[in-house]
UniProtKB/TrEMBL annotation:
Ligase is among the record's keywords: no
Family: Belongs to the phosphohexose mutase family.
Entry-linked Gene3D superfamilies: Alpha-D-Glucose-1,6-Bisphosphate, subunit A, domain 3 (3.40.120.10), Alpha-D-phosphohexomutase, C-terminal domain (3.30.310.50)
Protein name: Phosphomannomutase
Keywords: Isomerase, Magnesium, Metal-binding, Phosphoprotein
Gene: manB
Length: 460
């Protein structure tokens, strides 16, 4: 294998996954080497099998096959799952108790692709849990397979879509809810495959939007975190007279919700609702939330007798905290939702099913249902290009010194302000010269004032 520089690999091997531009950063030779390195790491831990899935991007099948060649060269067996959502891959890794590799670039544009890796049981692989070691092997060379000649691994194929659907339907019973009209924007991503497979046959009238699998994303980017990519669904919900709208990202592990008026429902509010449902079944349980979720999340958890556990942003951190605290559920501001019943992994469709169950078990509208969960106003994430991120952060802290109630440094800096529930978080990107700002306050005016002041400091 060609040896690679640390600088080149740092562009592609991120904090939680592998991702880059196809043909420039990511190609068949590169992913074959990643497959060999991952397999060598797993073999040393006694693992024997990797399940490999891929999304609808044009480059995904070829890259998945190259990865399989690299993994089998190190003696591991590979099961090719074909087209899958990321949470379907987690289901395979969890139910088979084997490692997994998902080929996707999630919400990124069509020219990107990458790999999300997990160990047996869908345990995440991040920098501290394997990616750093894989990087080292790509720099130094993957050690030669020390097995007997002719004992390379095998490649087989399997399809777990039906089993995945059965598993989700067993977790959330929707058979008894009132009929609902559900508008779904799959953004030409994997939700176009998984939503019908899981929700058909239930008392749901699914109105599909962009269900054709097309990794060139001809209609809009598969990134519902960006408001411009929700516009089509918002209009569609109103046109169809739908009770609810669901928007999935490219690999369908995230789900955003729109109410019957076409108004977005914040992921924090969804976290609060789903947390409450879990606490009804598991009194006193722990609920994980990252530090960008609304203050309402911890309030709702405590009001329902649960224990809120605050963690850093990022799925590898959330999943680790889920295991450490024995949590039953976790949510992020980015609409990743994690379930103990789903191997501590995230599933956008499972979160959607909980919302459908809550909506369909009462007679009110979704906007009425969500009132008690939407308690504050949030700015959303605002990015600023800043070369000296530490200096900019220090300048902001200095400007707010007299108004600061507390500061913590769990992930960047989170500043609680005196005399108000308002807070803001400022944290540096792991991969770009960006500072990310999130603000929450009781009113839009107060949010705007804080945003303007902070941006006025860091953008000068």
């Amino acid at each position: 294998m060609p040896l690679r520089s640390a600088e080149a690999l740092a562009k592609v091997i991120k904090a939680y996954d592998v991702r880059g531009v196809v043909g420039e950063d990511v190609d068949a030779d590169f992913v074959a080497d990643v497959g060999a390195a991952f397999a060598h790491l797993l073999r040393g831990e006694g693992e024997t099998q990797i399940a490999v899935g891929y999304d609808m991007r044009p480059s995904s099948p070829e890259l998945a096959r190259a990865f399989a060649e690299g993994a089998t060269s190190q003696g591991l067996d590979v099961v090719i799952l074909g087209l899958t959502s990321t949470d379907e891959l987690y289901f395979a890794a969890g139910s088979r108790n084997c490692a997994g590799a998902m080929f996707t670039a999630s919400h990124n544009p069509a020219k990107y692709n990458g790999i999300k890796l997990c160990r047996a049981g869908a345990t995440p692989v991040g920098q501290e849990s394997g990616l750093a070691e894989i990087t080292r092997m790509l720099i130094d060379g993957v050690p030669a397979f020390d097995g007997l000649p002719g004992t390379a691994g095998t490649v087989t194929e399997d399809d777990v879509l039906d089993a995945y659907g059965d598993y989700l339907r067993d977790l959330v019973d929707l058979s008894g809810i009132r009929p609902l009209v559900v508008a779904v924007d799959a953004a030409n991503g994997m939700g176009g495959l998984t939503v019908p497979a899981v929700l058909e046959g239930l008392p749901l009238d699914i109105r599909p939007l962009y269900f054709e699998l097309d990794g060139t994303f001809p209609n809009h980017e598969a990134n519902p975190l960006d408001p411009k990519n929700l516009v089509d669904l918002q209009k569609f919900v109103v046109e169809q007279g739908a009770d609810i709208g669901l928007a999935f990202d490219g690999d369908a592990d995230r789900c955003f919700v729109v109410d019957e008026r076409g108004e977005p429902v914040s992921p924090s509010a969804i976290t609060g609702l789903v947390a409450e449902r879990h606490l009804d079944e598991h009194p006193g349980a722990s609920i994980i939330h990252n530090l960008i979720t609304s203050k309402a999340v911890s309030e709702i958890v405590e009001e329902n007798g649960g224990t809120p556990v605050r963690t850093r942003v990022g799925h590898s951190f959330i999943k680790a905290q889920m295991a450490e605290h024995g949590a039953v559920f976790g949510g992020e501001h980015s609409a990743h939702y994690y379930f103990a019943t789903f191997f501590n992994a995230d599933s956008g469709l499972l979160a959607a099913m909980h919302v459908l169950a809550a909506l369909g078990s009462q007679d009110g509208t979704l906007s009425e249902l969500m009132v008690s969960y939407e308690r504050y106003v949030a700015s959303g994430e605002i990015n600023s290009t800043v070369e000296d991120q530490a200096a900019a952060t220090d300048a902001v802290l200095a400007a707010f010194t007299d108004r600061t109630e507390s500061v913590d440094t769990l992930d960047g800096v989170t500043v609680e302000l005196k005399g108000t529930p308002a807070w803001f978080n400022l944290r540096a990107s792991n991969t770009e010269p960006l500072l990310r700002l999130n603000v929450e306050a009781p009113s839009a005016d107060e949010v705007g004032e804080i945003v303007d002041e902070v941006l006025g400091i860091i953008r000068t």
